[in-house]
Design a protein that fits this description.
heterodimer, A: alpha+beta, Ubiquitin-like (UB roll), DNA polymerase, domain 1, 2 domains, five-stranded mixed β-sheet, 6 helices, B: alpha+beta, Aldehyde Oxidoreductase, domain 4, 3 domains, seven-stranded mixed β-sheet, 16 helices, 34 strands, 25% strand, globular
Chain lengths: 151, 791
């Protein structure tokens, strides 16, 4: 077991991990962060997306030890005080149905809007194309992301 | 039409904030504590084999292993409609991936490692993968004991063969009908298997506590049905229903894949082997493909006769369904779609044979559309071809033959009120039907396709649904029900129905997810029937509460109950305009009388609903005489596509779909169902492409090789249209629409491809490769079917 330390949702945390523990499993099982979900285990679906130093990563594809000394943000971190304009927009548009893809899409779109606060529709589609959703047909998700800039 | 305050309005989803903040809990998000045990399943590598021996001795020695179980530990069968499956294989495996044994360990890594140490010796025997081949006399028999299996009375398995069920419908005289026709046309269509691909894989956690109570947390559409099946399968262990509890938190997608019971029974059984410890069974993505349900493959032979004026005189179809080795739910798909195989047409002479056939591919069953998504590909492709052959516009053909209220369906019952013609007209107008469009780019072709559809809930005739409603101290409400929020917006719809009657706004209503210990009975969240059935139960519970409120007010104030009404969370009186009483001031603590005593007390309501006009008693040779379906939901859809003639790639320029919701409880959620369901259907039409090797092993059980749609694959434009011809026995006239958006997607694509290129593709999926090869080879018809790869 190796001790690793990092900033998780604004708070300094540390945890003991095996060298081959996946970040997704450590977040969920050892740190109580349940918003990143398992969907495929191979980077296809985007359900386990979080921000590592501001960049979206698939936590099923990286080892927990790689998070040592880094800064992580998940949906739990976004939801602490008041919600972000993006989250508010998703609620206004009733974007999600079963909701299982929501945390991954929210983190991907958070990073995207940070870089591109005034996107075109095609750019939004491209940005979230690595996050699968089986319920919504994506339309209400795309509309909500586009609506953030208007509000 | 009556104007409502909450019903028919785009009320915000009750569950959206939980889902957008990460607060929504799914089964694997629940903390089961340090005693939680993990499992790894030992799976069959053979499609059909006898189990000669299982040696667990080496595996058992490893530290961290708690228990290894095999079929010997659980010689119990389970099944909702037909008991043909064991919890773990006994002496025989019947598909690649079937569960043979399980390792239960303290941590998942140990379980995974130790699973490889369990030695199973198999004797492979001949397998069968082709449903028509499985009907041959010398075909391997998948279930030699079929004749002895318990099943519901409306299934007709044929012992000694691979026919698990055969639905026969005979109406009029089909031979005479073909003689009367000016044109008779027949062909064969092929529809492969597909996977639901819920984002959340199946998961169930079982706990048998030291007092002997069994609790199962499951990602489930069917908590009550699962409890019943656990009690039944584990009956030798002596469980009473009251001592089994199924808790179903949020579900990450269902689409039929989490209906009935599949792997959940493993968690229930394993829990009994490790008393006091919760034990988790969770499928990885590959297991999700091959060991839940898939959609069934179907080979559809269809023959239709028409007169020169377009009147359909006779319809004959034989559908061969490949249900895999365990058909219990699949047989009901075959039955339901068999009864309705004509599609929404008025046809005097009908002959339908729908065969449910055992094969050694993985178990197959319900997937959004429950057989209709599959068979209407053949029916609606065929109808368009017939119209074209007699020189009739294909929308006009559907207007002429489309079923109307009171027309008799194939099994003789009358068709319910419906807005099929309105849907046809609205869709045709929106897609500019009849206006031929051409691309400015000579490398591209534009085409339009049209289809109509119907679907009835497929259920036993006596399924029940109930609801409890209780007030809180501030006048807010909790609705306690056992339907499942699988994303369709069920919680919100139930709140709107109660809100309408009790005048409590939906944002002051909480609808509780199922827990069989405290939420009242609901059969399952399947068949697009919860808005209708549970909506009726919620409505009745709300009306009971309203009656009780008026009774209490009458007792204290002596106003005639008939003069009382609710408005803005207050009781008011038509005769005494100054009277008003806030609900929150008396629904818990009662109303104080002049002498200081109180009347009333905490107000609760309950409601129960079961259709009383349905019957599955019918002639097995003709299907006449019963009333198996409660009603049909109908609709129409069309698409405009652009095809790249070099690559064969299809771009959807515009899709239009109209559904008759009876009354749209929440029009926003219906539109959202149309966006999602159409895309799910387009994917089956265009690129989801399941492949097996010649040994029956799935080759692409992952999202790299089995492509589901991304945000880049959506149509350029989708126009949802809601038609409202009320369902007389529905809550506020509503009927279900959840599955329906997906149903017409495949035939409208096939019909549009033919319109664009003159190429008829008779096998799904209609991949870019198939289109490009047909153009290249100058083929006008394509029936190439690639699901099982040849050596």
């Amino acid at each position: 077991m190796n001790k690793i330390s990092f900033i998780l949702n604004g708070e300094k945390r540390n945890v003991y991990v095996e060298p081959n523990d996946l970040l997704l499993d450590v977040l969920r099982e050892k740190l109580g962060i349940k918003s990143p979900k398992y969907g495929c285990g191979r980077g296809d679906c985007g359900l386990c997306t979080i921000l590592l130093n501001g960049k979206s990563v698939r936590t099923c594809l990286i080892l927990a030890i790689e998070a040592d000394g880094q800064e992580m943000l998940t949906v739990e971190g976004l939801s602490k005080d008041k919600l972000t304009p993006l989250q508010e927009s998703f609620i206004r548009h009733n974007s999600f149905q079963c909701g299982f893809c929501a945390p991954g899409i929210i983190m991907t779109a958070t990073e995207f809007l940070e870089k591109n606060p005034n996107p075109a529709e095609e750019e939004v589609k491209e940005a979230i194309s690595g996050n699968l959703c089986r319920c919504t047909g994506y339309t209400p998700i795309i509309e909500a992301i586009l609506d953030v800039k208007k509000k | 039409m009556e104007e409502y305050k909450y019903v028919g309005k785009p009320v915000d989803r009750l569950d959206e904030k939980e889902k957008v903040t990460g607060a929504a809990k799914y089964v694997d998000d629940i903390d089961f504590g340090p005693n939680l045990l993990y499992t790894e399943i030992i799976e069959s590598p053979h499609p059909h084999a006898l189990i000669k021996s299982i040696d667990t001795s080496e595996a058992e020695k490893v530290e961290g292993v708690v228990k290894i179980v095999t079929g010997k530990d659980f010689p119990y069968k389970f099944g909702l409609y037909m008991k043909d499956r064991y919890i773990f294989a006994q002496d025989r495996v019947r598909f690649v991936g079937e569960q043979v044994a399980a390792v239960i360990a303290r941590d998942p890594k140990t379980a995974l490692k130790v699973a490889k140490l369990v030695k199973v010796v198999y004797e492979p025997i001949p397998a069968v993968f082709d449903p028509i081949g499985a009907l041959k006399e010398d075909a391997p028999v998948v279930h030699p004991d079929l004749g002895n299996y318990p099943h519901v009375p409306w299934f007709f398995p044929k012992g000694g063969t691979n026919v698990a069920h055969h639905t026969k419908v005979r109406k009029g005289n089909v031979e005479k009908g073909f003689k009367e026709a000016d044109f008779v046309f027949e062909d064969t269509y092929r529809i492969p298997r597909y996977a639901h691909c819920c984002m959340e894989t199946h998961i169930a956690v079982g706990l048998l506590d030291y007092s002997g109570r069994l609790t199962v947390w499951a990602s489930s559409q069917s908590p009550y049905t699962q409890r019943n099946l656990f009690a039944d399968a584990l009956a030798p262990l002596g469980f009473s229903h009251k001592d089994i509890r199924v808790i179903a938190p949020y579900v990450g997608g269902g689409f039929g894949g989490k209906a009935g019971v599949t792997m959940e029974v493993i968690a229930a059984a394993l829990a009994t082997a490790v008393k006091g410890n919760p034990v988790k069974v969770m499928w990885r993505r590959d297991q999700e493909f091959y060991n839940t349900y898939m959609r069934q493959q179907v080979i559809s032979k269809i023959k239709v006769g028409v007169k020169n004026d377009g009147t359909i005189t006779a319809f004959e179809i034989t559908n061969y369904w490949d249900a895999g080795p365990y058909v219990e739910y699949g047989a009901n798909v075959v039955n339901a779609s068999g009864l309705s195989a004509t599609g929404p047409y008025r046809i005097p002479n009908v002959k339908i044979d729908s065969y449910c056939i055992y094969t050694n591919l993985p178990a197959a069953g319900p997937y959004r559309g429950f057989g209709y998504s599959e068979m209407l590909f053949s029916v609606e492709s065929h109808m368009t071809r017939i119209a074209k052959a007699i020189g009739m516009d294909s929308v006009e053909f559907r207007r002429k033959n489309g079923i109307k209220e009171g027309d008799s369906v194939a099994y003789g019952a009358p068709m319910n009120p419906n807005g099929l013609l309105e849907a046809i007209d609205k869709v045709a107008k929106e897609i500019d039907w009849g206006k031929k469009e051409t691309s400015n780019d000579s490398g591209k072709a534009i085409g339009k396709g049209f289809a109509i559809f119907w679907k009835a809930p497929a259920m036993p005739p006596n399924v029940s649904s109930t609801a409890f409603i209780k007030f809180n101290e501030d006048g807010s409400l909790n609705i306690i029900v056992s339907g499942m929020e699988i994303g369709q917006g069920y919680l919100t719809a139930m709140a709107q129905i109660a809100a309408e009657i009790l005048t409590v706004p939906p944002e002051k209503i909480r609808v509780e997810l199922p827990d069989t210990d405290r939420n009242p009975y609901h059969w399952q969240t399947v068949a697009s029937h919860v808005t209708w059935a549970n909506g009726n139960a919620v409505k009745r519970a709300a009306l009971q509460i309203r009656d009780r409120i008026f009774e209490v007010v009458h007792e204290v104030y002596h106003y005639d109950k008939d003069t009382l009404y609710l408005e803005d969370e207050k009781v008011k009186c038509r005769l005494h305009h100054s009277f008003e009483l806030l609900l929150k001031d008396f629904v818990i603590g009662g109303i104080q009388t002049e002498n200081g005593t109180y009347r009333g007390g905490a107000i609760v309501g309950s409601g129960s609903f079961m259709p009383e006009f349905t019957s599955a008693v019918q002639d097995p040779e003709t299907a006449q005489g019963g009333h198996p379906n409660v009603h049909y939901t109908v609709g129409a859809a069309a698409v405009k596509i652009e095809i790249d003639k070099q690559t064969g790639k299809v771009r959807i320029l515009k899709a239009v779909e109209a559904l008759d919701a009876g009354k749209a409880i929440n029009p926003m959620n219906i539109k959202h169902q149309i966006y999602g369901g159409l895309l799910q259907g387009f994917a089956t039409a265009l690129y989801e492409d399941m492949r097996f090797d010649e040994n029956g092993k799935i080759l692409n059980p992952n999202f790299t090789d089995y492509k589901i749609p991304t945000s880049l694959d959506i149509p350029d434009e989708v126009v949802p249209i809601i038609v409202e011809v009320p369902q007389p026995d529905g809550p506020f006239g509503a009927r279900g629409i959840g599955e329906h958006p997906m149903i017409p997607a495949a035939p409208i694509i096939a019909n549009a491809v033919e319109d664009a290129l003159g190429i008829r593709i008779k096998s799904m999926p209609i991949t870019a490769e198939k289109i490009a090869m047909a153009i290249l080879n100058g083929k006008k018809e394509v029936d190439e079917f690639l699901m099982i790869m040849k050596k």
